[in-house]
Please model this.
Amino acid sequence: MFQVEVWGGAGEHGRSCYHVQFGQRSVLLDCGVKKGQKKEETYPKLDADKVRMLTTVFLSHAHEDHSMAIPLLYRHGYTGVVWTTRSTVRQLANYYAKWQQYVQDAGDELPYTSEHMEQVRYRFVEDMAPPGQWFTVEPGMQACWGPSGHLAGSIWLLLCVDGQTLFYSGDYCQDSRLLAANLPDLRYVRDLQVGILDAAYADDEATQEQLVDDLVSACKQVLERGGHVWLPVPIYGRGHEIIDVLAEALPGTEIVCDTGLEVSFQAMLEEEQWFKTEELHLYKQRWSSRVQVLTREQLLHKSTSLKKAIFVTSDPMLQSKASAKLVEAFATSPNNALIMTGHVYPGTLAARLLAAEQSVPRVLHYRYKVHQGLPDVARMLDGLKPKFSLLVHAPKAKTDRLKAKLTARGYDHVYSCAPGDQLVFCGRTLGTATSND
Model:
């Protein structure tokens, strides 16, 4: 018997955190935060007593909604290690700095100190085994990992503890233009008991090809109308793919980016193992020939230029002072437009602009796919065949819709949960499903 307790991330977008109890052993999968207007929902619903008893912790990738609450574990008495990848750890410093600034700008304080951050000890899965192969975490506990296609260093995890198996997809995407992604060898999942699956796009069935066509068309329309296009993106992740897409689709258009994306581009060159070799080679050529890196001041000046350009900056929620200034500059022309390409957190400047009926500059939303929707979840269920599946990373109502559609297609034992819920598995049956709320 083992149980999965949702401390965050199911029935919502953000603060991914899953406590898994395998008999006398327990592991935690990710420990992130959530931006928004409800401060009580910023951090996971941690149980301090259970945190102290954790056997180990796994971190799937660096994005703040999976990582920024890790030091809280050490505040609550955890003394073990965090298993992850070197690429993830290299990225974390930037995310910690931005999260601290976000909290400070909101007039709040971090619930952990720099001492707790320094206590975090990492071990690297790639030191133990290549992707797709088992390694021993401790006697009785084995792990297998592989690239999840979400950003450099992002991984899925397969755990086997005393004969009980669980798959955690992390943030998964098979549609990445640049990043490699795969799934475990089918021999390893012949008796997979539980899958915790990225379902961030819920029942959406749009393909990446459709989404890219829509994004390119939207950019063309703004440029043809005489406006600049601005795409705020994460410093690591979809931003570079979008630059690559637009550089290829709009060969005569100038593309400018900030120094943050230059930093992450240089990091990509040192971590080629996460990328599709030929595609990365082509992107290097496009970057050197098509992308101009500008400082904050230069970006502001560029926004007044008559020659229209595509701006790409590394602040997806527009929370920095530099972004606020650029918003003001873009607002001087009704022809300019911001295009959001990912999830927009409530309470952020990006959300307020997107919700405004007649905002200047115009704010549009055209998603670029970095998660899974209905066809992708179905494909993962077909490949892994878990006996029970927990759908995560989307609001509860959307997850309920996805569950209903999957059930109608013949997929059994698929669950939609919320923070505080517990699923207890007894062999081939679900023992109990309870909520602490």
